[in-house]
């Protein structure tokens, strides 16, 4: 058990955004969570004797199913990050929490249950903060910290109010409404935090309108360095990564033909060698009359690193055409 905690405490050394590199970490984390859940299930089952009749038993089974489902959801959230706010997400969150509620409600006082939810949300939130680029997000997260402080204060006041003045009256509904508000505002805030990060860092040094022009110029310039003594077909590629850096590459041909390096491969390799991981857009430049999008092999590499939203712009001296990777490689393969 100590080994798991040690790994988790050393989170600074772990790039939680890189799925492959940190398989070991995720494995430890899953094992730890498995242990914790086993404890929770054990404690819950030991309470079984207090559940009387089929109705109680059904509720218990549903609640445990919810716990297990949300456990998987949690893993997924850690790995992928919360990217979407939609009605389905809210509904699932809400019903999971109500089911938890039914499970715990048998024993604990309501206020304690609510406090547990708050702590749970705080933990989710912390996870999401340290998942990727912690320093940047922490700077942006001040408002959210205030939000949590506010929730705890409201909880405390409501506890005093309900417990002291009107014990038992309307408590259930008030708490359920409070929970609902917490869940929705939590999702909205955390998604805002992430989308703010995305639009903030995509184009940090060059304004967005000028970025594409810069990429095209760079792709054209690097195409002039291409080694194309076999085909005479010059290709230049310029990649913009998610950190705002630009990487260029040209095609390089060799006398045995089969060693040819494509311009896109060349640019992608420079990006990886420099430590960046994710291309946001790529410009491919040729001097041909026809506009060419990357070949099948390059599409696979681009899809693996940039995903379906990667913007692919192909240009010649007359103009450009834009497509997304999703359009160029529908149903693309990805492990
Ligand atoms: N080429 C690229 O650089 N990228 C592609 O996606 C298609 C092909 C190069 C390789 C070769 O040097 C020349 O174009 C003709 O095939
Ligand atoms: Zn290619």
Describe the secondary structure blueprint for this structure.
Elements: H1 2-9, H2 23-46, H3 53-80, H4 87-105, H5 110-131, H6 134-140, H7 142-164, H8 171-201, H9 208-223, E1 235-241, E2 246-250, H10 263-274, E3 279-286, H11 296-306, E4 311-315, E5 320-324, H12 325-328
Parallel strand pairs: 3-4
Antiparallel strand pairs: 1-2, 1-3, 4-5
Helix pairs in contact: 1-2, 2-3, 3-4, 3-5, 4-8, 5-7, 5-8
Zinc ion (ZN) is lined by residues 262, 264, 294-295, 297-298.
Q: Nutshell version of this structure?
A:
With about 325 residues, this protein is an alpha+beta fold. It folds into two domains: about 190 residues, no CATH class; about 120 residues, Cytidine Deaminase, domain 2 (3-Layer(aba) Sandwich), CATH 3.40.140. The protein is built from twelve helices and five strands.
Polypeptide structure, described:
By secondary structure, the chain is α+β, with helices and mostly antiparallel strands. The protein has two domains: 194 residues, no CATH class; 121 residues, Cytidine Deaminase, domain 2 (3-Layer(aba) Sandwich), CATH 3.40.140. The chain is built from twelve helices and five strands. It has a five-stranded mixed β-sheet with strand order 2-1-3-4-5. Strand 1 and strand 2 form a beta hairpin. Helix 2 runs antiparallel to helix 3 and helix 3 packs across helix 4. The longest helix has 31 residues. The chain is elongated and about 80 Å long. About 3% of the residues have low confidence. Tetrahydrodeoxyuridine (THU) binds next to helix 10.
């Amino acid at each position: 058990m100590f080994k798991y905690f040690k790994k988790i405490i050393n989170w600074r050394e772990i790039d939680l955004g890189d799925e492959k590199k940190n398989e070991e970490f995720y494995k430890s984390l899953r094992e730890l969570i498995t242990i914790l859940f086993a404890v929770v299930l054990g404690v819950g089952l030991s309470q079984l004797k207090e559940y009387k009749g089929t109705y109680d038993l059904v509720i218990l089974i549903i609640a445990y199913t919810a716990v297990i489902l949300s456990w998987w959801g949690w893993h997924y959230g850690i790995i992928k990050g919360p990217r979407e706010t939609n009605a389905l997400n809210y509904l699932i969150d809400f019903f999971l929490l109500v089911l938890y509620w039914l499970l715990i409600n048998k024993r604990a006082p309501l206020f304690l249950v609510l406090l547990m939810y708050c702590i749970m949300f705080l933990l989710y939130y912390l996870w999401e903060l340290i998942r990727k680029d912690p320093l940047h997000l922490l700077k942006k997260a001040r408002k959210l910290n205030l939000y949590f402080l506010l929730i705890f204060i409201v909880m405390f006041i409501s506890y005093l109010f309900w417990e002291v003045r009107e014990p038992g009256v309307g408590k259930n509904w008030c708490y359920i409404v409070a929970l609902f508000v917490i869940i929705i505002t939590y999702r909205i805030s955390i998604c805002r935090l992430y989308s703010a990060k995305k639009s903030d860092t995509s184009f940090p040094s060059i304004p967005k309108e000028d970025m594409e022009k810069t990429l095209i110029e760079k792709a054209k310039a690097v195409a002039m360095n291409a080694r194309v003594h076999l085909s005479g077909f010059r290709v230049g590629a310029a990649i913009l990564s998610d950190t705002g850096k630009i990487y260029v590459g040209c095609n390089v041909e060799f006398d045995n033909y089969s060693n040819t390096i494509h311009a896109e491969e060349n640019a992608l390799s420079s990006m990886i060698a420099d430590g960046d991981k994710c291309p946001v857009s790529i410009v491919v430049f040729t001097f041909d009359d026809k506009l060419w999008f990357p070949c099948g092999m390059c599409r696979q590499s681009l899809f693996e690193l940039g995903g379906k939203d990667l913007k692919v712009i192909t240009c010649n001296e007359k103009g450009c055409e834009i497509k997304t990777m999703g359009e160029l490689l529908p149903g693309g393969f990805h492990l």
